[in-house]
Design goal:
alpha+beta; five-stranded antiparallel sheet; about 25% helix
């Protein structure tokens, strides 16, 4: 168990490819921290710098109070789990898990204890004599986890470990990873591009874009109080709906329509981006707000209705009984208390505050 601190870390590849900038993050002991963002935002680079596989261009990395910036990967007391498992195909599960401990010259009885203990935790005790090709994808991923667990590392690093699994198995393994974290109480840092994985696994989430931190927060705070329109749009599925609006006399205008609302105070008049999540749009017969239905996704427990409103596609998350037909009109109201306002640079505006 350990804390991790990135201090002013940046990484530039080949002189001008900025992969990571001004990365200052402290991970608490036993915390599950998730790094999330679109492809190319610098997630893997961050993890590889912590693992010692990549040198930072500037800054330092600490594990507890030990500066590990110049320490070799094998001496950092961390274990990394990758998406492609990286298992040795000719070795049994047992030997795959024992391999790194043998390299460290750990006594045989201690190796045996650690391997069996990890296998027990992961529910793979019955497969120890099998080869990787005799296992399902989920079982292979458990072996990859097992190889990390046997080492009792100070910090676990995960680089998109579930992306090779099918959707159902991914959800199951996500659940198991959460339980594993509770059991081991270890510090874990997890990289994913999948916001649902980030939301369900993270104690805290770091949202990255183009190498820069956008926000660090708990999942619910990210969801309810995004600092900018990027985070607002990235977290949540379907994504938050956005509208270009003009604020005049405290009233929101969308093209020719005025959105009914209590007057907005505390910010200057002008153009803004208005954001509202799909679950905060409600069917409302006779409402002045309406749009043509483009697609209806019937999921059984809910209907997601996609409509055209003010030139934008709008998603409304509705109950399973709400009827809508493609090409018909959908009349709706907006829960303004749950809406967000961003300036044209995407920065969140604090409204109605004195
Ligand atoms: P992510 O894991 O979020 O997809 P990465 O950390 O892999 O992003 O990459 C961040 C940026 O750095 C990307 O623009 C990527 O193309 C670039 N990059 C990553 N590794 C290298 C490398 N070895 N050489 C040059 N550019 C790289």
């Amino acid at each position: 168990m350990a804390s991790v601190r990135f201090q002013g870390v940046s990484k530039t590849y080949q002189k001008d490819i900025l992969a990571l900038a001004k990365f200052d993050v402290e991970v608490q002991d036993s915390e599950f921290l998730v790094l999330v963002g679109p492809s190319g935002c610098g997630k893997s680079t961050t993890l590889r710098i912590l693992a010692g596989l990549e040198e930072p261009t500037t800054g330092e990395v600490f594990i507890d109070d030990r500066n590990v910036t110049d320490i070799k990967p094998q001496d950092r007391d961390i274990a990394m789990v990758f998406q492609n498992y990286a298992l040795y195909p000719h070795m049994t599960v047992y030997n795959n898990m024992a391999f790194s401990l043998r390299m460290k010259k750990m006594p045989g009885d201690k190796i045996d204890h650690n391997v069996k203990e990890a296998a027990e935790i992961l529910g793979i005790s019955d497969y120890l004599q099998r080869k990787p090709k005799e296992l399902s994808g989920g079982q292979r991923q458990r072996v990859a986890l097992g190889r990390a667990i046997v080492r009792h590392p100070a910090v676990f690093l995960f680089d998109e470990p579930l992306s090779n699994l099918d959707a159902k198995l991914r959800v199951q393994m996500r659940n198991e990873l959460s339980q594993l974290h509770t059991k081991l109480k270890s510090t874990m840092i997890y990289v994913t591009h999948d916001q649902a994985e980030a939301m369900t696994l993270g104690d805290r989430i770091v949202v990255l874009k183009d190498g820069y931190i956008q926000q660090i927060d708990t999942p619910l705070d990210l969801y309810d109080n995004p600092d900018n329109s990027f985070v607002a749009g990235f977290i949540g599925s379907p994504s938050m709906n956005f509208l270009n609006i003009v604020l005049k006399d405290g009233i929101i205008h969308v093209g020719d329509i005025t959105l009914e609302n209590a007057p907005i105070t505390g910010i200057p008049e002008g153009e803004y981006l208005f954001g509202i999540r799909p679950e905060d749009i409600h069917p409302s017969e006779g409402s002045r707000l309406s749009g043509e239905v483009e697609v209806v996704e019937t999921l059984g427990n809910e209907n997601i209705i996609y409509l055209k409103f003010s030139g934008r596609q709008f998603a409304a998350r509705c109950g399973p009984k709400v009827k809508a037909v493609t090409g018909g009109m959908f009349e709706f109201s907006i829960d303004f208390d749950r809406s967000h306002l961003f300036n044209l640079d995407g920065i969140k505006m604090r409204v109605n505050e004195t």
